[in-house]
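Figure caption, in words: inputs first, then the predicted bound structure.
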Amino acid sequence: MSDGKTDHSPADLLIRAAAVHTLDPGRAPGEPPQRAIAVTGGRITALSPEPAGLDDLIGPGTEVVDAPDATVLPAFDDTHTHLIMAGHSVHGVPVHRTHDLAEFLDLIRERAARTPAGEWIRTTVNWQEVLLAEQRLPTTEELDGATADHPVLVRRGAYNMVLNSPALRLAGITDATEAPPGGVIERDDRGRLTGRLINRAIEPVERVLPRPTLAERIEGLRAASADYAATGIGTVRDCLVPVEDLDVLHAARAEGALAVRVRALVSGFAARTPEQVDALLDQMDDWRAQGRDDDRLRLWGVKFGIDGGFEAGALEEPYQGRPCYHGRLLWEPGDLLAAVDRAVGRGWRVGVHAWGDRGLRVLLDVFEQVVKRRPGLPPGTLVVEHGGLARADQRARAIALGVPVTVQHPLLHDGALAQQRTWGEERTAALFPLREWLDEGAQLSAGSDFPVGPYGAMVSVWGMTTRDTTAGVVGPEHAIERAEAIALHTVNAARLTGESAERGCLRPGALADLTLWPLDPLSCPVDALRELRPARTVVGGRTVHRS
Ligand SMILES: [Zn+2]
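Bound structure (zinc ion present):
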């Protein structure tokens, strides 16, 4: 089946292109590219090295795409991202497009002008204050200047908020309010609220925010998943799905609102005790028992986190300028071992966030214990999410354990400045040692970690090959080749989700998840990759994006 037809029924879709890069590991290296590909019933049915080689599959219902200059690749996976958050954020005030606080506040003012007084105004969450000219968050006072007639919630990522005065009032937060344990209510020198709330201090706000309806949630997911597809992504692995949101995803899937395939990791961040972990796993078991999984929406497993991120990743050496601070471990290793062991004992896969080198070391200690306790654990059951600062000995341990690692250059791209402030330049440049991971034989796959980094197929390939970031090029010795970067989002990503037999490369019988590019991403100028968008994204034979 190297170039022939395996199915003679007429094609639903037939693409003739300059090149079809199949990425099929079963094909001989150096084989000339294919030039035509046919799709029927959601699957690839045939490939041909001749543009006209599949023309006898054209029937009355066949959509024929003649694209003699274009290149076909598999659709990309984003192996670590947050679609649920994107769905909440997609209709927010798009402050991620602004460059300074004046623009930022103008957008809020504009939204206020067309929003009934008293209704909440919220921002998108995918931005970093260090990338604004002022390198800081807006204050309550500034937000009040944009509107005093609406509660305003400025949100960055999952755990940082700034509120205007009406919003603080609605949340019941005053100068006298004490922060809950694990939360920060920021105050100025004179003890007055700045409006900023961090971590658990955001909970009172979440309680008073109007809850979106199911229809609104589905529309949010429809728009957000279409945005992913528009960058060439066909599958997302959402690494923080609240367990109750599995039903929202299922409703969206049932309505055909998911442009991309979704692999869900249920958030285990609130589960601390064995009872809480068991209760979460019970809910996951119930979901599995309902038989709602299919190739569009699949419950992948559970997600825990061993340490913090830019400001609290656990390091062996102290933080820059803070000789007594090494970041934070979020679990006692014994407790995490018990939690992971419970999950894998019930047949679930587990992904664990590790950012600093101490975080990764402790996580590998835990994973080694789990593997020892459970001989015969299926490969790919345990996954390191990020493994940001991975020292040589730690890489060797992860590889010896056969534990896959997901990396995210876009996270480094947007976070490099913030990370340099807390870790210094050297440790920031050492993040994501991709060249070493690949040379040493790791099972690596790639994603974005949106909303911390921007998602997108080629912006990630550009970043992994150039190591360019908001702080300039960092750690260029860790860069990888373009073909390697593309493989991390396709062939390797399908291996991570256990779907190599179905997805990840283009061959007859595989799911028809493919992208059509106006330039050849394997040979175009590298700078063109950064903004390169596909002309078309196809998932399961259905065109989910067309430019
Ligand atoms: Zn994440």
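The mean pLDDT is 95.
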